[in-house]
Amino acid sequence: MTRTRLAVCVCFVLLWVAAPVLPQETSTPEAPVTNIFTWVEDGPSPQQSSPSAAGEMGLMDSSGNFSKLLDVPAQTSRVQFCGSEAVSPDSTLMAFYIGLDTGTLYLMRGADAPQVIDEVPALTCLGSGGFQYSPDSSRLGWIAYEADAASSEFADGFLHLVQASDLTEALVYENVIAFDLANEGAAFVSFFTNDRSEADEAAVFWWDGNTEREVATLRPDESCRYTSASIAAAPDGNLLLLIGHRCTSGDTRTSWQLYRVNVADRSATLAASAFAEGVFASFANTNQMMVLPGGDAALFMVPDGITANTVGLMTVNLEDLSTNEVIQRQGVAPTLSGTPNATPVMSPDGRWLAMVVTSINNDNTLNVIDLNDPTVPPIAVSAGSRNDVISTMAFTPDSHRLIFIAGSADTGRNANNSLVALDLNTGSDFRIKRGRFAPGLAIAPDSSAVVVMDYQVLEDEGQPPYLNLVEVDVETSETTLLFEGATLVDGAVTEQRFALPLRWLP
Fold first, then answer.
1. Residues contacting residue 245 through CB under 8 Å, at least 6 positions apart
2. How far apart are CA 211 and CA 464, in angstroms?
3. What phi and psi values does residue 445 have, to the nearest 5 degrees?
4. Separation of alpha carbons 458 and 154, rounded Å
5. In sequence order, what are the residues at sequence separation of 6 or more whose Cβ sits closer than 8 angstroms to the Cβ of residue 25?
6. Mind listing the pLDDT tens digit for each residue in 208-239?
7. What is the DSSP string of 376-443?
8. Whether the predicted model's global pTM rises above the 0.85 cut
9. Rounded to an integer, what distance in angstroms lies between the CA atom of residue 363 and that of residue 422?
10. CATH classification (class only), 77-336
11. C-beta atoms surrounding 126 within 10 Å
């Protein structure tokens, strides 16, 4: 699906006409617009917030003024977007999560006060698939996973589909592993278990907006079970199902199986299969699949066995079912405990996919894949020296650039990193600013500036660094202080606090 943002220019023309000279009225300058959705709390950093202090979520304007929208409970460890699809395709809605390993799912409309929509595990908001909007933004859905899902062989829970306009519930279904929300309805997969809690049946459903019906039923080989699933609706009306399969006897390696499901005649055909080098871990988002632009191919992940959340990336041609390897191994995928490197992001127009590829020596490289033709080698940019990381990355709203932070993962006195822009038209990158930038950034709606947290280091080595929130102009590198992360008293750092930007609202 292609998402397009139109920038409207309102131009004023001053006409010189003969007219009497009238007394001039004195006008009061308008206050800056509050537009940066931010988490503010006492403490050195989001990873070291004060255990006794409650934080606040709200809007910060271009002068650093803050307007609170809701409280963040004390001891909160996770304040984050709800997965990689947290912003609706029309940019009017944003979903985010506040809590620990379980917490609250909120929905925000524009700059209005956020609404509570469910209490869910953090797993719901991990990576891609647990939370989605329909392409036309009319519906949204999420899986409220079981409390023990992250420690089970497979993660399942209740699927909730609601109308975006008023949050009225359209569908609730249990035992759901994966779903894909389309304008016309939704596809989803439920696992059913035997008396050993092994998934020995996978049911594929299509919901047409009113009624769900089972369009395919799969069973594993003898002495085998299913361990994960991902599903996507193809433009021709068929469904693509990627499923993990593992046996207790014979060859016990995990295999991935790709099925094409015909909704009309309720049949499933095995299109491709191979052994994976690793297993599908329930606490890592390593079973992802998507139909590529044009609808003639699909992209999917396969665990590589090196770590629980590193993967290979493959495509399958939907006409002849041939597969192609895009990234062989060690692409960094999301995991519940977090990673030093950023996890995959997609450009707003749906053309580009950015993924960090690591190595056993911790040499990290940014790969940006053109989804219009994944067979073309990715644009590759090194994180720097060995052990340097790419901690944060985000595409500009116009999809012309990728902004990322690359360099040392240590934000201490002797370490530094850089804010970098990659031009996707030319494949060239340039440094916007050197600093000691912490993970997390927000990009202006016109793509001209970035808001980011930057550690300040004093000459006195006995004083800790503290986090300022700054706005950086992408072209000129001009920096504006929005929020100061400490109070200095006689050269000593006191009252440390931070402001983490989540999104610069349109």
1. 220, 221, 224, 225, 226, 227, 254, 255, 256, 257
2. 59
3. -55, -30
4. 49
5. none
6. 999 999 999 999 999 999 999 999 999 889 99
7. SPPEEEE-SSTT-EEEEEEE-TTSSEEEEEEE-S--STT--EEEEEEETTT--EEEEEEE-EEEEEEE
8. yes
9. 19
10. mainly beta
11. 27
